[in-house]
Write a structure and sequence with these properties.
This protein has ten helices and ten strands. By secondary structure, it is α/β, with parallel strands linked by helices. It has one domain: P-loop containing nucleotide triphosphate hydrolases (Rossmann fold). The strands form two sheets. A six-stranded mixed beta sheet has the order 6-7-8-3-9-10, sandwiched between helices. It has a four-stranded antiparallel beta sheet with strand order 2-1-4-5, with helices on one face. A hairpin with a 2-residue loop joins strand 9 and strand 10. Helix 2 packs across helix 3, helix 2 packs parallel to helix 4 and helix 3 packs across helix 4. The longest helix has 17 residues. Bound molecules: adenosine-5'-diphosphate and magnesium ion.
Length: about 270
């Protein structure tokens, strides 16, 4: 379990550029859960996940991972973080050596490393024939898969993804989410997904933490969130189009998926026509 308690964070304290990025944030992430962190640009999402991963030193509040403080180096093995645009950090000559880079530092045997590379490539839907190819010859979507595979190969217990589909074109985005998310979730890893796409949150998250200007506006299920128009408006977030459509039709019950919306609309039609 990850436990975040009363975390506040200010950048450049004591300078004219002082900026409070987080104020009194508290929540837990249960094992096996997909927790989304949503909020407008600048709301503090990236700061929060970097604190959870131990990359920004905590100054107020506590973060514990499986009972260990984030300051403890042991958590490095538990938490894997995929930054925004992770493909910018690819630098090895081949896909294989890039994915193997992290596991190599874990003191594993060559056979173990190669098994991890193969498994991670499978999980992100990259064909094994791409092993010897340079990442720079791949498409943007494929490069992102390589970068994500590099983190999966570390076999983290907790995986943090910061806007994993940002900047991809719609088909690449859809493929990445359905294929990769399906595989990752099956492996039982606990996920923190930073996103401002409410459709993605509706489909993949068990719970959502909504941040606005560094404060928690809401913690609950996506279904509860989409019923709270005022929260979404205050956070500057748009509900999924299908939820908006049902709202226009004056349906009080929020629908999260196309299937749900279809059922509700069929009920409406059979009553009224
Ligand atoms: N390295 C930094 N130095 C100073 N201010 C920062 C830094 N990183 C982020 N901030 C500020 O902290 C706030 C939260 O930023 P961030 O955590 O990146 O939000 P988000 O990921 O939700 O867009 C913003 O006002 C941002 O300008
Ligand atoms: Mg960010």
């Amino acid at each position: 379990m990850i436990s975040v308690k009363d975390v506040s964070y200010t950048y450049m304290t004591g300078t004219p550029f002082e900026k409070t990025a987080l104020k009194n944030i508290s929540f837990n992430v249960a094992d096996g859960e997909v927790l989304a962190i949503a909020g407008h640009t600048g709301s503090g999402k990236s700061t929060l996940i970097q604190i959870i991963a131990g990359l920004i030193k905590l100054t107020r509040g506590t973060v514990e991972i499986d009972g260990l403080s984030v300051a403890d180096k042991k958590i490095r093995r538990l938490v894997g973080i995929v930054f925004q645009y992770p493909e910018h950090q690819l630098f090895e000559e081949t896909v294989e050596t890039d994915i193997a880079f992290g596991p190599k530092n874990f003191g594993l045997t060559d056979a173990e490393i190669s098994a991890r590379v193969e498994e991670a490539m499978r999980q992100v839907g990259l064909d094994a024939s791409l092993k010897k190819v340079s990442p720079f010859e791949l498409s943007g979507g494929q490069r992102r898969r390589v970068a994500i595979a590099g983190i999966l190969a570390l076999k983290p217990k907790y995986l943090i993804l910061d806007e994993p589909t940002a900047g991809l074109d719609p088909p690449a985005k859809e493929k990445l989410l359905t294929e990769i998310f399906g595989a990752i979730k099956k492996s039982g890893v606990t996920i923190i997904l930073v996103s401002h796409n409410m459709e993605d949150i509706a489909r993949f998250a068990n719970r959502v933490v909504v941040l606005a200007q560094g404060k928690t506006l809401f913690i609950g299920t996506p279904r509860e969130l989409f019923a709270r128009e005022e929260i979404l408006a205050r956070a500057g977030l748009e509900p999924p189009p299908i939820t908006q459509l049902l709202r226009v039709l004056n349906v009080k019950k929020p629908a999260l998926t196309l299937d749900e919306a279809e059922k509700i609309i069929n009920q409406l039609v059979s009553k009224k026509i």
